[in-house]
Amino acid sequence: MAQLTVQDLSSGTGLPTFVAAAGGGDTVRTDTAGSAGGWNLGLYLVVRNTDAAAKTVTVAGLAGVVVPATTGVAIIPIARQHFGATRAVTYSAVTGVTVAAVQL
To answer: Of 19, 62, 77, 84, which is most buried, counting CB atoms within 10 Å of its CB?
Structure first.
């Protein structure tokens, strides 16, 4: 399992940097600082799938999200938790899957 670094894209000018999904799953810290004018920024997992088969991504054991084959993209909201908390991310398979954890 790899911990994904949350990227701050709240300025609206950046692009996420994607990394390969880990075969054993990934984790995302949900306590990263992120607020604009006192409002918490949304935390999301962006998933791209370039493989010929659809993939299912599950965050924190909730219902899986199917990412379509070949050019599929999914943006999955991640609920924030208390300080030090992480959310587990699992994949049905990782071939052709890249991910980015972002706050908008």
So the answer is: 19
Nearest to 64 by CA among 98, 89, 28, 32: 89
Instruction: Name the residue range of residue 11's domain.
Output: 2-103
> Domain count of the chain?
1
Burial class for 93, CB neighbours closer than 10 Å (0-12, 13-18, 19+): middle
Name the token pair of 41. Answer: 């920024």
Task: Report the distance separating Cα 3 and Cα 63, nearest Å.
Answer: 21
Distance separating alpha carbons of residues 11 and 104, to the nearest angstrom: 8
Mean pLDDT of 51-55: 97
The tokens for 39 are: 């409002």
Q: Scanning the structure block, which residue is given the tokens 């810290």?
A: 29
Given CA atoms 59, 64, 69, 73 in this order, what sign does their dihedral have?
negative
Q: For residue 56, what pLDDT is reported?
A: 97
What are the pLDDT digits (tens) for 66-90? 999 999 999 999 887 666 689 999 9
